[in-house]
Amino acid sequence: MSTTHKIIFGDARRMKELADNSIHLVVTSPPYFNAPFDFPGLFKNYEEYLELIKSVGKEIYRVLSEGRIACFVIQDVRIDGELYPIVSDIIKIMREIGFKYRDKIIWKKPEGYIRISRRSGVLIQHPYPMYYYPDNIYEEIVIFQKGRFNYSRISQSLKEQSKIPLSKFQNEKWYLSMWEITNVLPSNDISKYTAVFPEELAERLIKLYSYVGEIVLDPFLGTGTTAVVAKELNRNSIGYEIDLELKPIIEKRLGLKTKTLLTFYGEGVKSVKVEFIIRDDAKHLRTKLRKVINEKLQKKKNKKH
Length: 305
Ligand SMILES: C[S@@+](CC[C@H](N)C(=O)[O-])C[C@H]1O[C@@H](n2cnc3c(N)ncnc32)[C@H](O)[C@@H]1O
What we know:
It is a single chain. The protein is of the alpha/beta class. The protein has a single domain (2-304), classed as Rossmann fold, CATH 3.40.50. The protein is built from nine helices and twelve strands. It has helices at 46-63, 86-97, 121-125, 156-161, 166-171, 199-209, 225-232, 247-254, 286-304; strands at residues 2-9, 23-28, 64-74, 77-79, 82-84, 100-108, 138-145, 178-180, 215-218, 236-241, 260-265, 268-278. A ten-stranded mixed sheet has the order 8-6-7-3-2-9-10-1-12-11, sandwiched between helices. Strands 4-5 form a two-stranded antiparallel ribbon. Helix 1 crosses helix 2 and helix 6 packs across helix 7 (225-232). The chain is globular, with a radius of gyration of 20 Å. Bound molecules: S-adenosylmethionine (SAM). S-adenosylmethionine is lined by residues 11-13, 29-31, 52, 194-197, 220, 222-223, 225, 240-243, 285.
């Protein structure tokens, strides 16, 4: 089995490298607006953020094959006490573009594993009415479909190769609209780069919505989770990421140093080809973002003392 993985550094608002109707599944997690500990000040305002979602959403619609699925892992963001309704706005935008809103799954994280600082601490300091902000323990996976899927076009042998593991489906309760999956912990090296989603989450989506040998796209690739899991599951992948500073971590996670590599897999040999394209609209973001985050943390510390 051989797979190819193309990583394009550039703005996903323009996926000019991709032909119409050429992608079989989209699994992605867009930036969380100006989330204070991930993307502070990345967007001028909320409208500019929604424009990004709209442009990328239109590109996704263009490149997805008929009947296929786009999954967004996302959550509303609280900034200075105000909650931005990202999830409902994305649903509205995707429906306007022409997608069918097919499903919503709640991704519940284990209690005590939350990445963002505990909001409920405010009430413990001030145990009076109006100080209440709950700790957020879940994110949402919103699932869209372009048109109708033609099941009869998939051969029986491809269906067999791509069979869903029913024991996992039953034991891990994939059949529920709430998935309990441990998030990538802050202590994990990759979480310092961005809000990473767990491989297990990508694994479920890729197994449930694509066949072996097909192409999975992530327009907001981050540290490369979608590509890593697609590779494991014998799917091809394409990822866009605007921040060139994430190239080393993507390379590391894909386990690659050279352009083409042969990894031993089970009995046979698995050929994995990785291609990087660096467009001139790629940016250097992480160093700048980290500087702003550190300044914010320092301010908070100073306030406490
Ligand atoms: C929430 S993170 C994705 C994390 C990813 N799921 C992972 O597991 O590592 C969103 C990513 O989108 C990138 N991004 C922001 N604007 C972009 C754009 N216009 N085009 C492509 N990537 C963009 C950010 O740099 C960030 O790495």
